[in-house]
Structure formats: structure tokens, C-alpha cells
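Two proteins, back to back. First:
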Amino acid sequence: MKKIWFSLMIGLLMTTTLFASAEEKLLDSSNALKNMIRDSKIKIPQKVLERAQAIAIFPGTIEISMFLGGKTGNGVMVVRKSDGSWSYPFFVKLGGAGLGFQLGVEKKDILMVFQSKDSVKKLMNNKITLGADASVAAGPAGESASRGSEADFKSEIYTYTKTEGAFVGVSIDGSVMNHDYDQNIELYGNNITPEQIVESDGLVSSYAVEDFLKSIQKLTN
């Protein structure tokens, strides 16, 4: 009975999360960013944001634990351009498995702040394995973290989470992050690549795109 209930719950979560339209995912991602900005417990140091080479947000990432656990999520990412502005958003996916010790399903909003150009370049080439291709750690937060020295900010990628559920913290070591080409094409059309999205200055925009970029600006400013 528990297995049946668990399977049904996973199926429902996967359906509502993974099969949303591109516009819906952009709006969900923007709302997740706004919630993080409003959360006083999540205060990202200005040094981390100033050094950000890219930012990715995975709203409603599903984490499953039943002996063998895992996580899956679809998100949105922007890259800092040479003039300091942010690129048009493009879609990415996150997946991974790990050992778990209880029965449960939880949804988390995961924010990733890329600190190195090299880690962004690896992802743009196709995919990146977190922890192997780029170092990843829970991001520093709060006033004390803001006063840290340069030596305190060593990781290539920092993660921040907003959680509703029973698990504590998040581990994404070993998770694979890659592109969601279908969603990019759905939003922008014409078999567009992530590289073309990042380099473009004149893509057709929409309310969802503009709202997401405003949320990024509010986060980083």
C-alpha cells in the first residue's frame, strides 16, 4: 500500500512540475526568486552576487528518499555578459541520485550562483557534473558572511535553498546539470541554441522573460 501511495505521489509531482510550459516555468522561477529575496533567512553576501558569472534557479525541485534517493528539477539560467548585463534566460535541467534513509518526497527551490567563468563554460559546452567538474557548496549567508575575506569564498558554485518539507539542507554533489533544448525552442523558436540565447541582444521577449530578468536585477542589485 505504501509503495502504491508513494508511486502515485511521485507521478503527480512529476507531472505538474516537469510538463509545465516554458512560460509557466519562467513565471515559477521568477516567483521563487522573489520569495528568496523576501526571505530574511536567505541573505546572500554582496561579494557572492558581485562575482556571479551566472545564476540558475530550480523552482519546485523534487527530492525523493526511499532507500535509493534522488532529485530532479527543471530550471532557468542567465549568464553575465561582458558588459555586465544579464543574458536572456534559457532552460536547464538538474538530475542526480544518492543514498536515502527514509520514505518521503519534498519540493525545494534551489538557487545556484556560479562564481567562475570556467564552470559556466563547461555547462555551455553541454553539461556539468556538480562536485566533479566544478566545486559546489552551500552558500554563505547573513551579515557575518558578508564580512568574510576573499579567502572565504572559494567554491565555484554556491547553492541556496528554500524548503517546505521534512528534509534538512540539500546536497547536489554528483548531480548533472544540462540544457533543456526543447523548452528553449518552445520559448524562442528556430532551433535556437543556449549559446545563441546568451549572445543575442534582440530576441523576441515576453512578459515572463521580462519579469524573470527584473527578478534577477532585484536579486543582484
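And the second protein:
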Amino acid sequence: MFITVIASVFLLGVVSADTGNNTTNTTTSLNTTAVEPLASGIQISVTPTALNLGTVDPDGLERAYYSITDVSIRTSGGILRVSVRASGDLISINNSSNRIPLLNLKYSIKYDGPYGPIDVPKRSFTTRYYTFWTYRGSVNIKIPVNYYLTVPPYTDPGTYRVTVTYRAL
């Protein structure tokens, strides 16, 4: 009994939130306006765009896939926020009632470079965006991401899929 896991990796880059590439936060008590410029000229790519984590026994043991994904980001300035989320449980392509809980798919980041450290301890993917890095200024970076997968005992054999989305804004 073997299980194959495939993760599709998508990316989302937002160049600006509005005209002028600024967001406005109005504080009523002071009657003032604070302007926080978003990152401009965002380019984001994720390689590879599809991962095959191979054939995995349903034995409840966690397997590590180190630096299996690279998230490359380039901006020309402003405040950059990078986040990630997954679409939901890993679902069998043959029978959608067969699932591996999303809690069993985890990631971590350990990067130390010219933009300072990015340290995300191992954590499960969630369906909500989790911002793992914020930076002010121009950026040209490649962030390696580690994945971890645990296939619970008695999981039905098959190919399971999930979509992981990286967002930069």
C-alpha cells in the first residue's frame, strides 16, 4: 500500500493596493492620516511549481523534504509582506472522501542573508494566509522552504493533492 503526494505551488504577487501604491489608515481621535507605502514592482516566482513528494508509506512517521521549494522575490522598495497558505486537506484524486489532514503537512524556513534572518520554526500549513516575513526596502531574495509530511496509519493508497500559495504584497 503506497501513497503518492503531489503539491501544486502557486504564487500571487500584488504590485499595488491602489493608485499611488499607498494604503491609508485614518486615526479618528487624532484626525490625522498615516501613509504606509506597499512594496512596489513586485516579482515573485516559486520553483518548482509542482512537487511530487514521492511514494510514502502510511506509517505515521514524519518525512522531511529540505529546501524543496525556492520562493524568489524582487521588489524596488516599500514594505514587503510575504505569506503562505494551503487550499485545505490533502485530497485523493481517486476518491475525494480520502484525505490526509492539513495538520500533517508542515513547513519551516531557516534563512540568513543580506536582508536579515528569516526563521520560521516548523509549523502546519493553514487555510489562512500566515505572514512569515516583512521587510522595508528593495529586495532580491531566494528563500528556501522545507516541507514535512506525515501520512497517518491506515490511510488509503492513492495520489493526494493540495495547493500551496505564496503571496507577496
